[in-house]
Every structure is written in C-alpha cells, then in structure tokens.
Design goal:
The chain has about 675 residues and is an alpha/beta fold. The strands form two sheets. It has a twelve-stranded mixed beta sheet, with helices on both faces. Strands 2-4 form a two-stranded antiparallel ribbon. β13 and β14 form a beta hairpin. α19 packs across α20. The longest helix has about 35 residues. The protein is elongated. It starts with a helix and ends with a strand.
C-alpha cells in the first residue's frame, strides 16, 4: 500500500500510545498489530468478557474507526474524482488535500486545475490546504501573480490598485505582459496614491525596453501622466527626453518666486544624484524652513558686551594666577616631592579647564556681538501657557558646503562664505503660517506637493535645529517644503533628564502641530523624521493623534531613544497603519543611546549593540559604520550613503532590496539591512 497511507496510519497509532520516534510500517503490519492486540486483549480478559456483570467493554478498534472517518485511506489509488467527491463531504474536506493530494495520480494540468478550483472554495480550510499544496509544488508565487494580474486587467479600480501594491515584490515575466496590463500600469501612474504610483513605476521600470513604446506614447498625449512616464523612461534608458510642445513652467524673475525653500533659483535640467551634487561656487544659497515651537521667547537676550567683559576678566585672571602659581619658588622636602607634583598637576588641570571655558564664553559673546542674525530668539524653557509659535527661518548655505555637514566656526565670527548661518527667525500668525506653506506648494507646478517635518533630539538649541533642518533640505535636494518642530531642549549635555521631562510635556503640542498641518495644508505626501528623543515625542504624538488611514508617506526614525519593547509592541502597529513605510536607523556606536540605556535601565530601539530591533513591517537599517551627523549623534564614518538612502526613500518610496543595502538576519525570515559600502 502507498507510503502516505502507511505514514498516516502510523501517526494515528503514535498519537494513541504516546510514542515519539516513528518508524515506517506497512498498513498490513499496523492492522496485524491491531489484530494481535485485540486477540491478546480477548485472551487476557476472557473471563471478564464472558461475565457481563464485570461491566467492562473491550478496547475500541482504532484502525476500523480511522478507515470509517477517512475512506480514502484504504484506497491504493486516488483519482481526481475521489478528491472532488471528498471536497463535497463536510467531514472530509478539512484534511483531504493535505492527506491525499500528493497521492493522487494526476497530470500537472489536472493538479493545477484542481488547486485553482480549490482556492475558490467557500471553506477557508480548503483554501489554506490549496495554498500549502501550491507551495509544496513550487507554484504558489506563479499562482498569486496570475491572480493579481487578473485583478489588474479585469478587476474594479480598488482591486486593481490593491493588486498593484501586491505585485511590488513579484516581477512580471515578459511572456505575461500584454497591452491590457500595460494600459493598467499606465493608468496607475496617474493615481492619487503615491504608493500606487510608485508600485506602477517600479513594474514598468522592471519591464525595461518592453515598456518604452507605451511610455513614449504617453509622453505625446497631454491627457496621459506624461511626466511620470518620462521619469520612468529616464530610469530605464538613463536620460529624460523633453516633452514636445510643452515647456516647464518657471518664473520669469527671481523676484517672482514664492517664499520657497531655496530662494535662489536652481540650475535647470534633471536633478543630479546626491553624491554628485555641485554647489554654487560664487554665492551662498538661502534656504527657508518653517517651524513650530513651544519654547519661550527670549524677551531680554543676553548682552554680549557684558558677557565679553565678565568672561574676559575671568580668563585673564586665570592666566595670571597660573603664571604666579608656577613662578613661585618654594623649598620642597624631598620626601614630599610626590605631593608637590600632584598638587601642581591638579592646579594645572583646573586652571586649563577654567581658561578653556572662559575662552569659549568669550568667543560666543564675540560671535553674538558680530552676528547679523535678525528676528525673534527662543530660549531653552517652555512657554508658560503652552503656546505654539509659528514662523520661518532663513538659512544661508556656503558655496564651499560639504554634503552632510553643518559648517560652524571653531572660534571667531560667522562667515557666510564658509559657514552655515541663520540669517533670521520670523514669527507668523498661525493662519499666515499655513497660507505661506500652501503658497510654496502651489508654486511647485506639476510636481508632487511634498512636506518634510524634522523633530530634533536631545541637547539641541532652536538655532541649531534650524540649521540642521535647512542642511537636510539642501542636501536631499528636497523639492517641497521642509519644517521642523523645536521642543524646549536645554541644549546642554548634562541636562538629559530635563530634556526627557520636556519630551513628556511637549508631545501633545507636537500632536496639535501635526493635526494642524494635516487639516490646513494641501499636501500630497507628508514625510516625518524623528531623531533621538524627538522620535519618542513624535511617536507619542502619532499615538494620540490616531489618524484615519495612511496620512504619512515616510516615517523615518533615526537613533530613536525609545524603550525597545514599548516601541515594538505599542507604537509600531499604529505607525504601520498610518504610514506608507516605517524605517528605523540604528547603531551600536551611539554614545547617547548607551547612556540612555543605563539612565532608563532598558534597551533603546535605536541601539543595536545587543542586535538590531527587527519586526514585520519595519525596515531596520544598521548605520553603525555611517555618520548620521546630519541628524545629530555621530555614528562615525561617511554620511553620504545614508543621505542617498534617505533620498531614495523620500523621492521614490523604494523598499530596502532596491536600494544600496544588503540583508542580514537575527530572526529567521525578518532581515535587517546594512549599507553595501560597509561590506
């Protein structure tokens, strides 16, 4: 009898007697054993059986019961009709495919037809068995692909869009490409959903030359998504052909520009890759970033002349004391030479520390005295009545700017030809704030109306957050509007717990800021970047915001200072529902997160020293060898690959396998990623 029947019988026998090691036996052997056991029982209980008063019944014959429940188990040959008949029997259908499908003598075509029909069965158990059988045969991917392609060709719009997303990781063989499929992909390029547009563009790009004719046709038709078609074509052939009869809409003069992010006009032509960007060699570029903050307004900024006088006196006094201390001559007993040296070393260290601190304070006072910064200034405390202030900052980027760096003077005043400089911080009414952002977005023409929000981390002043947001905007070549939210960090290394307290207080105000943007700004794609403690506040704000549907495009968490278990179990499920993609950048070399782990006595989500945090629906990228100084904590190394990865995320919503990343595993089937440059 067939080996599948034998194994089934043996499994039933093992379950009854509690044994674990299974050895192959024939059905005849099993029946013989059962028969022997029955005979032995009858012999052993002969007197009892003959005595009805004993009240005992003979043990059940499990082999007979098995054959009664599963009539196909006794058949040596299973036909297609047997399987189809068993599916109509409610008592058999729940296991018939699992037990007997591979036993049946079916041709490959019959197998395919039967499983496809079973996949449409109203009983979910039958459909699950059919899927498992398709996987055993190595046909599950082809089957799912065919179903999704059928939805795209013949289904309604919602089914076609869902299938488009489902095909993101299933390349379409060229033999399955027809005109109806190409037309559906082209229609999807005009979808209102950026996720669907990205999925359609990805499939057309995979088709390569086969997609070029329809893309060229679309570019000739103003009713078609010609711009998206041109972008896909450019990625296939490496160039962007100009649209015939249609010119890009540009303002006639720089004065006609709206208050956009980059006030100086950028060179025309296709945007160069970020690693090959060139900056203006003559003039600085001015970047405008919009802000929200619940910091207190500094009504009485510090007087730089007074500070310079005080710290100048302190510094000069320390120098004079040092000279006098070492110039003194004392008779030292030889036995006290050790203590003499120790006293002198301690004195020297203290004096050097005082002198360095005083010089830094003097330098800051000189910089403030010579600064041309205008507008409002914000302090390190929260506003008394939880007021959120709105406005914008203008930041100049020097012509010698290096990608990923915020150039600041080591000592001395700022110079716009060499340093990133905050020119002004302007307050706006809340309504005027939304109006200004909408004006910027409306000036983007046919491009996507994108917004990027950056929330800074621990130990960051308002001015530093503005400089960082402007640098991120500039280095990413971001076409939309960049905003930042500055919560009242003390901007001091030793004020970790004060900053942690401010995060707990400020996350509800960040929620209000987010809700206002979503309600009042006409945005197509809303990207958010949270760094360190700022990521904690941003995630808590989203939890309380509880948005309906997918309101964010990219949710990017860089070195998040969040309890790892809280993030994985409570925060991540909500992020997955309200964002197109959630990305976590982590590192095992982040000093701030190491300190936070000890302060909070818990692992942090952004710390990969004990292994990266991985989960389904989360793209975890270990940036231990990268430099994320563009966001704050330095991870050492080079930040250019990280910036390029961010650009691919924000511009094209590419999954990790389509970026310059390599997978590694700490949990089976759930990868985390590292940069190819680090291999």
């Amino acid at each position: 009898m067939d080996v599948h029947q034998n194994l089934l019988s043996l499994l039933m026998f093992a379950a009854l007697i509690g044994c674990h090691p299974l050895r192959a036996q024939t059905a005849t052997d099993v029946q013989a054993v059962a028969g022997s056991e029955s005979t032995a029982n009858k012999a052993a209980n002969k007197d009892t059986t003959s005595n009805p008063a004993a009240g005992e019944q003979p043990p059940p014959d499990w082999a007979t019961d098995l054959l009664a429940d599963d009539p196909l188990a006794a058949k040596e040959s299973i036909t297609l009709q047997d399987l189809e008949q068993a599916l109509t029997d409610e008592s058999q259908r729940r296991w018939v495919i699992e037990r007997h499908f591979l036993r049946a003598a079916l041709t490959p075509q019959q197998q395919d037809d039967f499983l496809r029909a079973a996949f449409q069965h109203p009983d979910s158990a039958v459909r699950q068995q059919a899927a498992a059988a398709l996987q055993q045969l190595g046909q599950l991917e082809d089957f799912v692909r065919d179903m999704l392609l059928a939805w795209i060709r013949d289904g309604d719009q919602s089914a076609a869009e869902a299938a488009m997303i489902g095909l993101q990781f299933l390349p379409i063989p060229k033999e399955k490409v027809d005109q109806r499929l190409l037309d559906s992909l082209l229609r999807a390029l005009a979808s209102e959903s950026p996720t669907i547009r990205a999925a359609a563009a990805q499939q057309l790009e995979r088709l390569g030359p086969a997609a070029i004719p329809i893309l060229l046709e679309a570019m000739q038709d103003p009713e078609q998504p010609w711009q998206e078609a041109a972008e896909v074509l450019s990625r296939i052939v490496g160039d962007v052909p100009e649209k015939p009869g249609r010119q890009e809409k540009r303002p006639a003069t720089e004065e006609a520009l709206p208050p956009s992010a980059i006030i100086k006009s950028a060179p025309s032509g296709p945007v160069a890759p970020i690693l090959e960007r060139k900056v203006d060699e003559q003039d600085a570029q001015v970047v405008r970033v919009y802000y929200g903050t619940n910091r207190v307004i500094a009504q009485h900024p510090s007087d730089p002349k007074r500070a310079l006088t005080i710290w100048g006196i302190v510094s000069l006094s320390a120098v004079l004391f040092a000279l006098w201390s070492f110039a003194r001559r004392r008779r030292e007993v030889k036995s006290s030479l050790f203590f003499y040296v120790v006293r002198r070393l301690v004195t020297a260290v203290l004096l050097i520390a005082v002198i360095v601190f005083a010089v830094l304070k003097c330098d800051a006072a000189v910089r403030q005295l010579m600064s041309a910064r205008g507008g409002v200034q914000f302090g390190g405390r929260r506003s008394a009545d939880s007021t959120i202030y709105f406005g914008f900052c203008d930041v100049s980027i020097p012509p010698t700017h290096s990608v990923g760096v915020v150039e600041r003077p080591l000592i001395g005043p700022e110079d716009e030809t060499r340093h990133v400089v905050l020119q002004q911080a302007v307050l706006l009414e809340q309504a005027a704030f939304y109006s200004a952002i909408n004006q910027v977005l409306s000036g983007l023409g046919d491009t996507s109306r994108d917004c990027l929000l950056y929330v800074h981390g621990y130990n960051v002043a308002f001015d530093d957050a503005a400089l960082r947001a402007a640098q991120i905007h500039h280095d990413l070549n971001f076409a939309g509007t960049t905003m930042f939210y500055s919560w009242p960090s003390r901007a001091s290394f030793h004020h970790y717990f004060s900053d942690r307290n401010e995060i707990r207080f400020s996350h509800r105000l960040i929620k209000e800021f987010l809700a206002g943007i979503l309600k009042n700004v006409d945005v197509d794609r809303f990207h958010i970047i949270g760094h360190s403690m700022g990521a904690d506040a941003l995630c808590q704000a989203i939890l309380e915001l509880d948005p309906e549907g997918e309101v964010f495009d990219q949710i990017i968490l860089a070195a998040p200072d969040i309890d790892a278990d809280v993030f994985k179990q409570q925060i991540l499920p909500r992020l997955q529902r309200c964002g197109s993609r959630t990305t976590l950048y982590c590192s095992k070399k982040d000093w701030a997160l190491h300190a936070s782990k000890h302060f909070n006595d818990s692992l942090r989500a952004g710390d990969s020293s004990n292994g990266p945090l991985v989960a389904t629906g989360l793209d975890t990228i270990d940036a231990s060898e990268m430099d994320t100084e563009l966001l704050g904590h330095s991870y050492y190394g080079n930040c250019l690959p990280l910036l390029d990865d961010l650009r691919l995320l924000i511009e094209q919503n590419r999954p990790p396998e389509q970026r310059k990343l390599e997978p590694l595993f700490v949990v089976p089937e759930i990868p985390y990623w590292i940069f190819t440059e680090t291999l």
